[in-house]
UniProtKB/TrEMBL annotation:
Organism ancestry: Bacteria, Bacillati, Actinomycetota, Actinomycetes, Streptosporangiales
ABC transporter domain ranges (all copies): 21-235
PROSITE patterns in the record: ABC_TRANSPORTER_1 (PS00211), ABC_TRANSPORTER_2 (PS50893)
Listed name of the protein: Aliphatic sulfonate ABC transporter ATP-binding protein
SMART domains tied to this protein: AAA
Gene3D superfamilies: P-loop containing nucleotide triphosphate hydrolases
Amino acid sequence: MATRVPGPLTRPAAAATGPVATADGLTRRFGERTVLDRLDLEIGRGEFIALLGRSGSGKSTLLRALAGLDSEAEGGLSVTGSVAVAFQEPRLVPWKRVHANITLGLAVPDPKEKADAALAEVGLTERAGAWPLTLSGGEAQRASLARALVREPDLLLLDEPFSALDALTRITIHQLVLQLWSVHRPAVLLVTHDVDEALLLADRVLVLDRGRIAHESDVPAPRPRHRDHPDLTSLRTTLLAALGVSPEGTT
Ligand SMILES: Nc1ncnc2c1ncn2[C@@H]1O[C@H](COP(=O)(O)OP(=O)(O)O)[C@@H](O)[C@H]1O
Ligand SMILES: [Mg+2]
């Protein structure tokens, strides 16, 4: 368990066992506004978690804290091992070709080979020499996944990475993410506003509301999953209710 510490966050050295991340009373205020309010969360090794929540509920704030990008969060937070993030916008450096984007800042003895392998895994070998601005949305997101994966993270944080993609590209990327996860087995925290996406991909779905994890459901259905699986149908209703939405009101 993480020790509760006031003030600065603790970041112990990597450990091979126990949860990959633990938030214990994590709090984040912006001025008068408390966005994360004594939030508790444990992320197990290799676990695939989806995080749902209304817009502005603090999902990205939580993700940034877990990624070590927020020095002003208070309370207990321990993250063991390495973390990589992929954002909604792929955030590729436009003046570097795709391959150079993957190796950027990569401190391993064989960055080129690692990047080649990651690009092959996401099906982008032929685009390795392309400029980011010439990529389609799906290709750019695959490059972003390759950049995260090449770091072999213990915890992969995904902040609505598929929401700007068209429906068909999204289906392909879902399959790719599951495949990459089953091979590399990082713990994944996927922020999404799409209940179906959460049910299709995750082992556990969390709902963030009023600064806390207000609801949590395990998703026991085996993969590959189908949207119409009866267990998922009832879970969908439960999650929509937790989000304060009636199923009839959604498409
Ligand atoms: N740097 C910041 N300064 C002030 N307010 C912020 C900052 N970052 C986020 N917020 C506020 O915190 C709340 C949660 O934001 P965010 O975590 O981005 O929500 P979500 O990702 O769930 O849509 C929002 O009201 C947002 O305006
Ligand atoms: Mg967000």
